[in-house]
TrEMBL record:
It comes from the Bacteria. Keywords: Methyltransferase, Transferase. The keyword Methyltransferase applies. This is Ribosomal RNA small subunit methyltransferase D. InterPro entries: DNA_methylase_N6_adenine_CS, RNA_MeTrfase_RsmD, SAM-dependent_MTases_sf. It is an enzyme of class 2 (transferase). Residues 1-23 are annotated as: Disordered. The gene is rsmD. One of its GO terms (molecular function) is nucleic acid binding. PANTHER family: METHYLTRANSFERASE.
């Protein structure tokens, strides 16, 4: 069973699609959000949850005080379930689900206000992560001091961080590795 770990909706169960997604384990979400809470980047944040699946990561952020979450998911069944989960746990007012491919969403240009936290949990065998990270590093997507977290299989190795994102550590849990980066000031 997948459930929200902590915050306003802590303990509430989430539905997951029967196939096609790999929800982040409760143990990994708990460790991830403990680090993010310690860094002070969740409460009041604008959060972008890419490859959202059932919405577990974005909903965890909203439960812990994020001001707004944009969850992007291409699979229609998963996107509908993400919307349903947000309503079921009482967070629909802070979570907007966009049912489209991540690349298409990013091609639409940066939002009116930049994001403070970006969570990327792509399918482990998905290619194109370098292009997605490069698009996020373009002006307008990320606030100063924003944190970007990529969840991948341990065997995948560190992402290729584009200019504008500085690696800030990693943590491995079984077959899952979380990679962290923060925005950096570009000069010149």
């Amino acid at each position: 069973m997948t459930r929200i770990v902590a915050g306003a909706a802590g303990g509430r169960a989430l539905k997951v699609p029967p196939t096609g997604t790999r929800p982040t384990s409760e143990r990994v979400r708990e460790a991830l959000f403990s680090r993010l809470d310690h860094l002070g980047v969740v409460r009041g944040a604008r959060v972008l949850d890419l490859y959202a699946g059932s919405g577990a990561l974005g909903l965890e952020a909203a439960s812990r005080g994020a001001a707004e979450v944009v969850a992007v998911e291409a699979a229609k069944v998963a996107a509908a379930l993400c919307r349903s989960n947000a309503a079921q746990v009482g967070l629909a007012d802070r979570v907007r689900v966009v049912a489209t491919r991540v690349e298409r969403y990013l091609d639409g240009g940066p939002p009116g206000s930049p994001f403070d936290l970006v969570l990327l949990d792509p399918p482990y065998d998905l290619g194109g992560l370098d292009e997605v990270l490069a698009a996020l590093a373009a002006p307008g997507w990320l606030a100063p001091g924003a944190v970007v977290v990529v969840e991948q299989a341990r065997r995948s190795g560190e992402p290729s961080w584009p200019e504008g994102l500085t690696p800030d550590g990693e943590k491995t849990y079984g077959d899952t590795t979380l990679w962290f980066a923060t925005t950096t000031e570009l000069t010149g």
